[in-house]
């Protein structure tokens, strides 16, 4: 597989995740506090199980292809920018593992307003980072097509 093909796969995964994270941030998480105490635990557990199926595979594709791009920099893209874009993927994963997953784990025992607020506020980290990454990958695509 050449750098251009890997770049296209990376761009598809990244932009899928950009759209998904904005939907989760603006719509989905904002509705968590409207579920109600009685059904919240089941709702949270179902959310976690179902969202993992639609976010997990693209995140794996994104991190694998981002790592491959560091080894074979796409034509027209500065190597430092490709490395920086990979660092953004790592930051997203760290935020997910260290902040959002623990919030979801706490919420799976019952709704807690402080944890809910932390989840919504901290998710802006991933929303902003994925948006920046999407713009970087868009730049890489344009630079690649121009080369």
Key terms for this structure?
84% helix, 147 residues, mainly alpha
Describe the structure.
The chain is built from four helices and no strands. It has one domain. Helix 1 (3-28) runs antiparallel to helix 2, helix 1 runs antiparallel to helix 4 (113-146) and helix 2 packs antiparallel against helix 3 (79-107). The protein has helices spanning 3-28, 37-71, 79-107, 113-146. It is mainly α and 147 residues long. It is elongated and about 55 Å long. The longest helix has 35 residues, at 37-71.
Main pleated-sheet profile? none
| Gyration radius, rounded | 17 Å
Distance between the termini: 18 Å
Strand content: under 5%
Q: Can you tell me the number of structural domains?
A: 1
Low-confidence stretches: none
Helix content: over 70%
Based on CA inertia axes, which overall geometry fits? Answer: elongated
What's the SSE blueprint?
Blueprint: H1 3-28, H2 37-71, H3 79-107, H4 113-146
Structure described in brief:
This is DUF1772 domain-containing protein. The protein is mainly α and 147 residues long.
